[in-house]
Amino acid sequence: MDSPMSGRASIRLTINGTAMELGCPPERILLDLLREDLNLTGTKRGCDLGTCGCCTVLLDGRPVLSCLTLARLAIGHDVTTIEGVTPATGLSPLQKAFVEHGATQCGFCTPGFIMTGTALLRDHPDASREEIERAISGNLCRCTGYLKIVEAIQAVGKETP
To answer: What is 4-85's CATH number?
Structure first.
């Protein structure tokens, strides 16, 4: 543990499958830890208010807004970012579906949608259109109108055995 005078505490967590111990000020948000300290910039900074979903990551498999989550709340937990769902050999099935269905326009919101969709499909591969719409309701997109996003998530769900 760092000294109280340093203003940093040692935190242990797992990020994208790698156990880490990092020095972290108590007020540091998870988004800043990921983007600034670890250079995992796939998680986007959108609103800093928890309203856009661009910063969505998975905490123990559940979507959370990293702009509203203190890094210290992730101590002892597994954090997965968009980099963690992207295989070394290419794109995940959901990422491929986003490309194939034209579900990306500017792409800024895409990582948040991929993270939310990944969690949904893991638990509910046969999710209905309404369930998908409800699951992604915390993610905002100003370009696509959501139709293609829902279609991409639904297509991957139908492919899941």
So the answer is: 3.10.20.30
